[in-house]
Design brief:
With 428 residues, the chain is of the alpha/beta class. Helices cover 29% and strands 22% of the residues. It contains 12 helices and 23 strands. A hairpin with a 2-residue loop joins strand 12 (221-225) and strand 13.
Length: 428
């Protein structure tokens, strides 16, 4: 009788690192880039290839969602072949799983199909906001049925075309609300003009990523005015994309250098990128690490001491769980601000971090828009993830530095990194 693989144990004993590491890591591709590339390929005027595509639950759900609309997506190898449907078809049900990009990016595409497309997902996804996108689609001439909930499940009633035009919305809860409309906007009769009114839009680098990729496809985008984006109607040119490594997924690996006083290189770190994870270079430098970007990749060396930081993470909120874990291990107080919007991510990340860090002994105060942490001795215990891959990243970082940390549902990391637990254990 064989024993159960360690990675399948729940809660999972996070490996403790007791000496400085010296590692070189190659990471899977970016989920954000992969799913945007797939959507644009599905709307393009010919077939294209998404090279080095991330193979994860979120990206496979996106591929399946686009197949439901008639697109041919071949995902057998590292390079995914995409052949658009002409015209798009409807009538299927789209499984969003836990993928915000599927839930928000695909409805504006489904609106271009003739017929009804129904969207649903995992139980946790029914708490994530999507009502802003649905209301925007209604304003642009699309029929949507959501029983007034503004959440999953809902149905997009496509008519084969979308009038488009100007829409005013509040994207302060998620930059994906803007990106969702921009990605499909060129295929609308009048294009689309998106105007944001409300608190500042979070995670602006993700909108910049969307705009940059649209321009690569020959789409005319005007983003010269703050809080206003205009996509002009026209063809979306077929373009092959090579996907960068997922820089936000680099956070736990670079953190290994910081907590162990060792060295970690992440291969193929781009010199220029729109990914939010690139902010790790500055954050880790502020926390006391030595950081160098080389032709081979990004090198981070820990010094044996982590310093507290006062950071506004508004534009890079996805990094907050990993940074909060490092702050809990720092030698001075930290304040993480500007991240009220991450309460609407896979879980209420601010509340979840406050709860789980405190359970391991951290002196943490939950703020409306962030966390304050004061140095305190940590101890082992179960770190709950709330079906959130970034929470799992925080848990493994703490486990590398603290005896006896167990991470509940570590398998949730498959959202963006297949078999993360086995890979992490092999490194540690």
């Amino acid at each position: 009788m064989t024993s159960q693989p360690l990675r399948d144990v729940d809660p999972w004993p996070a490996p403790r690192v007791r000496r400085p590491v010296d590692l070189t890591v190659s990471l899977p591709g970016s989920k954000s880039l992969t799913n945007r590339a797939l959507v644009l390929a599905a709307l393009a005027d010919g077939p294209s290839v998404v090279r080095r595509a991330l193979r994860s639950r979120d990206t496979l759900l996106m591929a399946e969602a686009l197949r439901a609309l008639g697109t041919r997506v071949e995902t057998d190898g590292d390079d995914w072949q995409v052949s658009p449907a002409a015209p798009l078809v409807a009538g299927a049900q789209v499984d969003c799983g836990l993928a915000g990009t599927v839930m928000r990016f695909v409805p504006p595409v489904a609106a271009l199909a003739q017929g009804d497309t129904t969207f649903d997902g995992d139980a946790h996804m029914r708490n994530r906001p999507v009502g802003t996108v649905l209301e925007a689609l209604r304003a642009l001439g699309v029929g949507v049925e959501d029983a007034g909930r503004g959440s999953l499940p809902f149905t997009v009633r496509g008519k084969g075309s979308v009038p488009g035009g100007r829409v005013v919305l509040d994207a302060s809860a998620s930059s994906q609300f803007v990106s969702a409309l921009l990605l499909a906007g060129a295929r609308y009769a009048e294009g689309v003009e998106v105007v944001h009114e409300g608190k500042p839009v979070p995670s602006l680098p993700h909108i910049e990523m969307t705009v940059q990729m649209l321009r690569q496809h020959g789409v005319e985008v005007d983003d010269g005015e703050a809080d206003r984006w205009r996509v002009r109607p026209g063809a979306i040119r077929a373009v092959d994309h090579t996907i960068e490594p997922d820089l936000s997924n680099a956070a736990p690996f670079l953190a290994l250098a910081a907590v162990s006083g060792g060295r970690v290189m992440v291969r193929d770190w781009p010199r220029r990128t729109t990914q939010a994870g690139d902010a790790l270079r500055e954050i880790l430098t502020l926390m006391g690490c030595r950081v160098q970007l080389t032709d081979a990749g990004l090198v981070v060396e820990g010094t044996g001491v982590l310093h507290g930081v006062d950071l506004d993470l508004h534009d890079v909120g996805e990094l907050a769980p990993a940074v909060a874990a490092l702050c809990a291990l720092a030698d001075s107080p930290s304040h993480l601000r500007g991240i009220a919007h991450i309460r609407g991510h896979e879980t209420d990340r601010i509340a979840a971090l406050a709860t789980e860090l405190a359970a391991l002994g951290a002196d943490v105060v939950e703020r409306e828009d962030g966390l304050s942490l004061t140095p305190a001795p940590l101890h082992g215990g179960v770190f709950h993830t709330y079906a959130d891959h970034r929470m799992a990243h925080a848990g493994v970082i703490l486990g590398a530095a603290v005896d006896g940390v167990q991470v509940e549902d570590v398998a949730t990391t498959s959202k963006t990194f297949p078999d993360f637990a086995a890979f992490w254990s092999g490194l540690c």
